[in-house]
């Protein structure tokens, strides 16, 4: 549709193509594992929500936010960002060791959550066979200065390419630890509560997904969690196989699942807006 609003990123962006891939779900779980290693950040989550009882809701809200900001209109993306900023502005957490009370919207905490997400999306997708050049990967990191702005960060203070992202992780590593809250997240992701009849399915299917997401973490994260890091080449082969299997499911079938952001974007912009990896590099 001529003149329709393409949103914050648009069909010509790396983000538009990347976020339509089914491996984003595994990347999102990796991001949760990584984010939990920042004690102040994960404490803000655990003290302001019943993570164990509403973890699925939290995961779906995050997926909905990513879908809205990627494929929604500019107005919808700005509304989603304003909603997140308002919620964060009202929440605080307490350091149990010092008694310090702090806002969950501290710039350092927002930056950690942002960088852990972008690193996870990029790492899992590339290792699973989604073809991105180094230049396109840098473009992806730069594009997400816009999503960082939505949650309240100054885009100029957010990594703009992979080198700056790597430098950020080197700088923040002394602050990371697998504290009690991280252990709770780890335990939940491996053994989420479910109906007794679904326990076998959880053991067969979900644990494999969670274990693969965990295996894809960087070496320092494995060290902090205290479990041996698997061989990176082995994990990459598993990611590629999983990506191959998931991508065999027709996109139209996958996109029928709620909340259908991609189908709505195509209805707004026309069928040529369909995200597809081959469109990169044009």
UniProtKB/TrEMBL annotation:
Residues 16-247 form the ER-bound oxygenase mpaB/mpaB'/Rubber oxygenase catalytic domain. InterPro entries: MPAB/Lcp_cat_dom. It comes from the Bacteria. One of its GO terms (molecular function) is oxidoreductase activity. It holds the Pfam family MPAB_Lcp_cat. PANTHER family: BLR2777 PROTEIN, ER-BOUND OXYGENASE MPAB_MPAB'_RUBBER OXYGENASE CATALYTIC DOMAIN-CONTAINING PROTEIN. This is ER-bound oxygenase mpaB/mpaB'/Rubber oxygenase catalytic domain-containing protein. It comes from Streptomyces afghaniensis 772. The lineage of its organism: Bacteria, Bacillati, Actinomycetota, Actinomycetes, Kitasatosporales.
């Amino acid at each position: 549709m001529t003149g329709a609003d393409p949103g914050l990123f648009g069909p010509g962006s790396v983000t538009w193509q990347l976020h339509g891939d089914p491996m984003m779900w595994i990347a999102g779980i990796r991001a949760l594992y990584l984010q939990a290693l920042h004690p102040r950040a994960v404490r803000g989550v655990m003290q302001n929500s019943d993570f164990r009882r509403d973890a699925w809701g939290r995961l779906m809200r995050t997926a909905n936010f990513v879908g809205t900001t990627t494929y929604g209109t500019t107005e919808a993306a700005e509304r989603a960002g304003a909603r997140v900023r308002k919620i964060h502005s009202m929440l605080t957490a307490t350091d149990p060791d010092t008694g310090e009370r702090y806002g969950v919207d501290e710039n350092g905490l927002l930056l950690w959550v942002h960088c852990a997400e972008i690193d996870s999306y990029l790492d899992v997708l590339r290792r699973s066979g989604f073809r991105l050049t180094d230049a396109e990967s840098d473009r992806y990191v730069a594009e997400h200065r816009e999503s960082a702005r939505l949650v309240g960060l100054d885009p100029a203070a957010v990594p703009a390419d992979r080198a700056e992202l790597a430098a950020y992780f080197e700088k923040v590593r002394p602050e990371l630890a697998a504290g009690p809250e991280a252990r709770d997240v780890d335990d939940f992701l491996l053994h989420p509560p479910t109906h007794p009849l679904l326990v076998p399915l959880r053991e067969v299917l979900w644990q494999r997904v969670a274990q693969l997401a965990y295996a894809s973490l960087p070496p320092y994260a494995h060290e902090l969690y205290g479990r041996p890091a698997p061989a990176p080449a082995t994990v990459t082969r598993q990611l590629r196989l999983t990506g191959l299997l998931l991508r065999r499911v027709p996109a139209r079938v996958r996109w029928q699942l709620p909340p259908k952001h991609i189908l709505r974007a195509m209805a707004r912009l026309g069928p040529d807006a369909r995200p597809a990896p081959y469109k990169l590099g044009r």
